[in-house]
Each structure stands twice: as structure tokens, then as C-alpha cells.
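Supplementary Note 2. Why include the ligand at all?

Several targets in our set were suspected to adopt different conformations when bound, so apo predictions alone were not considered sufficient. For every target with a known small-molecule partner we therefore ran a joint prediction. The input for succinic acid is given below.
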Amino acid sequence: MTRAVDIVVIGSGVAGLSAALGLAATRDVLVISAGDGSTPWAQGGVAAAYGGDDPLDHAHDTDVAGAGFCDPRNVRALVEEGPQRLAELIAHGARFDRNADGSLSRTLEGGHGRPRVVHAGGDATGAEVHRALRSAVQLAGVETLHGRTVGLVKSDAGRVVGVLVETGGEVTQIDARAVVLATGGIGNAYLASTNPSSVRGDGIALALRAGASLVDMEFVQFHPTALFTGDTSGQLPLVTEAVRGEGAVLRDAEGRRIMAGRHPRADLAPRDVVARAIDATMRRDGSSHVWLDATGIAAEVLRERFPTVLASCARIGVDLVSEQIPVAPAEHFLCGGVRTDRDGATDVPGLYAVGEVAATGVHGANRLASNSLLEGLVFGRRVATTLTLDLPVAIAGRSRELLLDEDREPERIRAILTKYAGIRRDGAGLNAAVDELDALGNGPLATVARSVVVAAAARRDSRGCHWRSDYPGVDERWNEHLVVRLDEDGRPAVRQLLPSGTC
Ligand code: SIN
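The joint prediction is reproduced in C-alpha cell form.
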């Protein structure tokens, strides 16, 4: 069965819905959804320079968190267009928390020099952003098809001209003049992540198979504080950084402050710094978690601001108000991804990417807290504007189906990536990971895992969230971005270096 639309958007998180909403008035757009992704789980908020705040200060904090490895022009687009996108979201009905005088309530998170993170429902910001966008997209008449995209269709002239979607065991071809990947991150390629299980990097595998390039794949961010539930696999509950923004501190088993003296911003250092400090503490003490102490914060503040965290804690029998809670880092966000320009175009005609699956360089080597919902809003709109002004013309001709392979032994792939490409990496482990993955085929999880490990093995220095114990410092000779493409055997390999700032 075949059908045709102007534009297919793969993914129904903040980036995909923003793109669909921006296109709805002028284009026949279809959203394909395999699950709502990470957006509804985002807690902290949306960072945006409002009121007396200066977007350039936000840009500065973004670049410092990104270890100076961000693309400055794209960061500027992010911070300057962000407040307007947020205002539009509010006009679409998103209800953010407000102060008594009606102004937006703003909180602090790691890496921010001032409170600029707006939030909703206390710590349920992603759910509210998602609700508002979904209802706006529905009102605009956009159709959503629930299914998994298992392949792309490419014309002989090299354009992406459609998708193959599996619904109820049947594969349907949908022809399109442009395809927008908005499939989110790679959480489920690791054993444990803050992402839901539908987030497994399919967009990365689809893009590679179509001939697109990836960049910055070694920069996988670990959130410092997932709730330690005793589970070592699956989706772990997040404990938003905003709890530390309100004054909570990290402690080791002896009750000593972990972050004191380690960074001028202590518990509010950028999250790569905090995650590494926790990892080092856990290794030193042979423990599976550390403690987050929010007992110094007034009970009414905790109840109003963090109902989601309180409920997660209650489920494992701990009380955020009166006791320390166990936390440990978990995979959270892919800073790299499919290489795009500022308007979402990949290097394959007809194929676009936005949100976490895309790499525009705005996150550099480590994403600043609460810049991810913002990225989805800003770059989702940018791709919509591009495709409104300039939709490729459909040209009849022969085409090829590029179907993803089946994954072999997914649990083994997850275990390999978790063991060798976590917070702390080294060359021997990464090379072992490449060898072990070679035996596991070219399915999407293996492709994603290999993309991360080949980039991490190639980068012989440490910066942002890529930390090599055998190359522990920044080495200026590695001031380049690593580009990954498929080799002759259909396996991801590092193919090119790009100067810093030209991601
Ligand atoms: C958090 O609330 O700590 C997570 C927000 C983010 O990933 O930026």
C-alpha cells in the first residue's frame, strides 16, 4: 500500500510537533509516532532569556557548558529566537508556573549564571509543553500515524522521497517531498537511561543508511541524578537539577559534600562535571549510588515545585522532604547526531533532522540544562519555515527502499555500550567494544552503538561529556569535530574531521 503527502515528520516530541505545527497551514504534513519520546518526561524546564536577562549571557553559559565547542552562530539563533518561540507556546495554551505578580517563575539549574529556566506543574514541564503542542497540532488538522519507521525510500537521483512504516505488522510506503527526522536520542541503546524505551536511535540509523553524516557522536550526556531504584536497566526516574537549583546538595556515604571545592558553582556546575564527580565518588567508595540531600529546603517548596520527584521517591519508599535520597548518573541526552545546517537540512537532499537526533552544534561537547526543549521549539520552527518557503518538487523516477536490518542480541549491544562508553572511557575498552559490536550485525542498535564507540575511540582527549582516563585533558590538536559515515561494509566509521565551530 502506498500513499503520498508533502512532508513526513518522524517523531512526536517537542521538535517534531513544532515542525508539524509550523507546516500545518501550508503543507500536507503527516506525523509518524512510535511513542512520544522523552519530551513528556522532561522535568526542569525551558531555558530562555526573558525580562532583564540577556540572550548573550545565555549564549555564554551554553558555550561554557559545551566546553567551548559550540557553533556560535547556531547558539545565537537558539538563544535569540527562544523567547519568541516560548511566547508562542504560551499563546497556544501552555501553562507555565507564575509568581504572585503574574510574571513567569524562573529557576536555576547547573551551568546557568542566573535563574532563567521556566517550568510548568513544578517539575512537569515536558508534559505540559507536550500537551499544549499536541493539542495545537490536532487543532491545526495534522494527522498522526502510530507506527515504527523501518526504512527510507531514496530516488535514483539521490533524494529521500519517502518512508516505510510498520503498523500492525504491515509495512506501508508513504511518498513525501521531504522527510524530517525528529526521533530524539539514543537512550535505549544503553542499559539504563532517563529516556523511555521507544527512544533507541532509529533516526540515527535511518540517516546513516540514507548516506547522511553524523557528527559529535562521542558526546553522550549522563544526567547526574537519576533516582537509584535498584534497577540497573530500563527507564530510570529523573531527579531534576532544579532540586539542586533550589539548594539541595550531593553527599557521599559519610555525609560529606561531593561538589564542595570541586567547581566554583559547586552542586550547580555543568552536568558533565557533576556526573564525573559522582562517578569518581562511587568508584572510590565501591557504591552504586550517592545521596541527594534536599532536607534544607522548606517542605512546602518541595511539595509545590517537585511533585513528580516526590512521587517517584514515594514509589521506592523514600521521602525527599525528610531524608536524603539515593541517586546515580544515567544516560540522558545525545549532544551530537545527524549533521544539519541551521535550518535542519542534512547532507542528503530531501532529508532533514531536528531536535535531539540532529547535531547543529548548539550543545558543543555537553548540553546546558534545559536547552533541549528550547532546541526543539527553535529548530522545529526553523525547519518548518524552510520547507514552507522551499518545498522540493516531486520528480517521478525509480527509487530504492533502504530498510533497517533486524537487531541481533539487543541486550548484549546495550551491555557493551554501557560498559565501554559510559562516563569514563579508555582506548582499550573502546577498541574492545568495536570488536564485540562487529559480531552483532548492522541493525539500528548496533549501528548507533558503533557510531558512539568509533567516535569515542578516535577522540584522544577529554572535553565536555567525553572523558578518557587515558587522555584526561583537553588537547588542542583535537579541536575538531569527528564526522561518522557508513563504510563499504555498512558500518559506521570516522571519515572526516571538521574545524571547531563549523559543525
Ligand atoms: C533536569 O530537569 O534536570 C533535566 C533537564 C534537562 O535535561 O535539561
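DSSP finds 13 helices and 22 strands in the chain. The chain has a mean pLDDT of 96. Comparable summaries for the other entries are listed in the accompanying table.
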